[in-house]
Amino acid sequence: MKEELSTDEFRKIQLTGRSSYIVSVPKKWVTKLGLKPGDPIAIKMLEDSSLLLTPKRFLEKAGRKEAQIIVSPEDNIQSIIRRIISLYVISYNIIRVKSKESRLTPLQRASIKDAVRRKLIGAEVVTESPDEMVLQILLGYPELSVQNAIMRMFTIASLMHKDAITALRNLDKEMARSIIVTDDEVDRFDLYIVRLLKAAIQDSRLIKEVGLKNLRECLGYRLATRSLERVADHSVKIAENIIAMDKPIDDALYQKILEYNSMASKLLEDSINALLSENYNLADNLMSRLEGVSAVEKNLVEGMLRQKFDAKTTSSLRLILESSKRIAECSEDIAEATLNRTVEKVSKV
To answer: Are both 51 and 182 inside the same structural domain?
Structure first.
């Protein structure tokens, strides 16, 4: 059975000399890590005033996490890309893709480069030879914090939604197609934020570096990124249904759909603002406003059905309204995360 250090073990602080304090560390810990007298230990005070002790050699190893993927010409290219993305998300800084044979295939090279460009923020192919490609993540954590990345992700997803409703007005199919392509940008920020959150969970020393106050924030931010990813996905669905339509709807119905989606956009904006500013009251107010969304959607559907569109148009419009509703509901998930994070600030606990 693996021997673990007791979480209840206490050591007394001792005074040595006139101004220095010392505390001994457990022998089990020293032995387990292979430490010896004279080895340097990094000490960092965390947000909750606890101390984090890390052997220096562990810090040097963590600063250059490297992984290697061995591939063959028969390997499924999407499987290779999924492995690269997974290693990126769990904070590897250098990823080597090496061929088991004499060289990587042209398809493998092109697909990997395309995936790196479209999906991974800060990743570049820095070295390339016939049998190997080396990817390195060049973007440091302070350059793009969790909060800044979430705000950028929100901006793109929100614009996709607004553009989709604009495209509906005159069935602008070119704009609709551009929305579908933009979805990759949202995915890039989602993967980058997951990378930051996992890094902070794995190494508490990085909490402040990635823009967090404590680890409790990780769950709320992860819920927010998943919700924003869904907003982008539903915007894509709206765009796809616009492309499927043959003729524009009348102005009166469009104005009602526009008003409904403007309501959803405002709810989403307020939910993100509440999350990033830790505003309990704004999140609470948003939850109350959400109660009217279903009623508005119901009236819209009933009005649309009364106009007796052809089956294809009716189906597309119904799916567009369903996606609009889902976008509004995404703000509810973000608001709930904010309420859970901030309730202690407005309560007597």
So the answer is: no
Task: Copy the structure tokens of residue 165.
Answer: 């409703």
Which residue type is seen at 270? D
The answer to whether position 4 is within a domain reads no
H runs (alpha helix) in 132-250? 146-170, 173-202, 217-244
Q: What is the pLDDT of residues 150-198, one digit of tens each?
A: 999 999 999 999 999 999 999 999 999 999 999 999 999 999 999 999 9
In a shared domain, residues 101 and 209: no
Same domain? 128 vs 152 = no
Strands 132-137 and 123-129: antiparallel
**Phi, psi (degrees; rounded to nearest 5) at 20:** -105, 140
Give, in order, the Cα–Cα distances in Å from 310 to each of 149, 300, 306, 315. Answer: 43, 17, 12, 9
Sequence-ordered alpha helix ranges (H) in the chain = 27-33, 56-62, 77-89, 106-119, 146-170, 173-202, 217-244, 251-277, 280-290, 293-306, 311-342
Residue 6: inside a domain, yes or no? no
Q: Compute the distance between CA of residue 142 and CA of residue 135 in angstroms, rounded to an integer.
A: 21
The sign of the dihedral angle between the CA atoms of 247, 262, 227, 287 is negative
| Predicted local distance difference test score (pLDDT) of residue 2 | 46
Residue 127's domain spans which residues? 66-137
CA distance 303 to 298: 9
Could you tell me the pTM of the whole model?
0.82
Domains identified in the chain, total number:
3
Q: Are residues 204 and 240 in the same domain?
A: yes
Residues in the chain: 349
Angle, helices 293-306 vs 251-277, to 10°: value is: 160
The pLDDT assigned to 60 comes to 57
> Domain check: are 131 and 179 in the same one?
no
